[in-house]
Amino acid sequence: MMRRRLLLLVSSSFVLLLTGCWDQVDIEERGFIIGSGIDMADEQKKQGRVLTLTHQFVVPAGLGAPMQGGGDQKAFDNLSASGESMFEISRKMTEQSSKLPFYRHEKIIVISNEVAKLPYLFGEMMDIFLRNPEMRRSIKVAVADGKAEDVLNTKPESEKIPAIYLDSVMENSFENASGMEPVKIGEVHEFLMGKMSYVLPRIIAREKSVESEGSAVFQGYNNQMIGTLNDAETKALNLIIGKAKQGIINISLNQKNITYEMEEAKSKIKLDTNDIRHLDVYVDINVSGVISETFGTENLFQRSTFKEIEKHVSREIETKAEQTIKKAQQELKTDIFGIGNMLKERHYDQWQQIHDNWDRGANYFSQSTFHVNTTTRIRTTGNVNKSKNE
Asked: CA-to-CA distance for 274 and 60, rounded, in angstroms?
């Protein structure tokens, strides 16, 4: 009796092992997608929109060194298909490819500004990607100033695969304080769920390079791109919301140029909700850094000179911040600073009274008053005291 039970148990185990592999796909049969782009198709129908989806597939044979073979073979292959729905496009893509699409290694999704400017479409596109169980929440999302396909067709000299190159450009741009922090699809999901306005990195394709340039501003209630911020405005935004890491600030003292290298920046935002429809927003920015270059003859070891430079740097930061706030309130009429989120988290009952008219309708965001204060500290003058032109 025990022997029969043992045989039955062993047989059942083999059945489970076999059924567990029924849908396994060999690695050779998988098409590894490293990047995706979404554009409006060149030819549109009179009724309904036509989209073009481009996937960038890795070609493993092209990744080898020249002496190993594959030196002259491309390391990627871009495949595009068009249709009125993502489901239709996906079916066409599968029919065109000899391999099953595999998304686990995807680095970035690029949306054309033409797609981004249509109400609700960006949210619909992201929803389809978010529902894919293979998609990692760390995939970056960016808006192309032009066609997304052109970005994926870039031929960088330093990298074999454009999507990997683009991923590095976005990381380096933020680390060097010339761009905004990369936004991941998991964060986009939170934006869509919260219906809050948001900002995404903006990229421009050149023939052999891609540049991260400013940011694209989206209205939260319809996920429509309604404007852009240039590099200077994006830097100011980073300082206001506490996401600036480092950067260069140029000032003029006694008609001589001085370069202040910001090494650390912090910000704190406080809200005065006594009049919820005319909010007072207090932004305190604290920066510290070094003087990296000077063309003047001032003695930088004098405390009075330190104080004067610190004052000029603070004034420069406040001016840029106030200009960016003015653009957000008067031109874009969109809360790019996350003030609505702060109200929701800290003053939920009051937020419920105004959330439908925060940065739309009556637009209480535009009626809010911002107060910006900056404190600057110079840690050291570096290796310079006076200019050589003394």
From this structure: 62
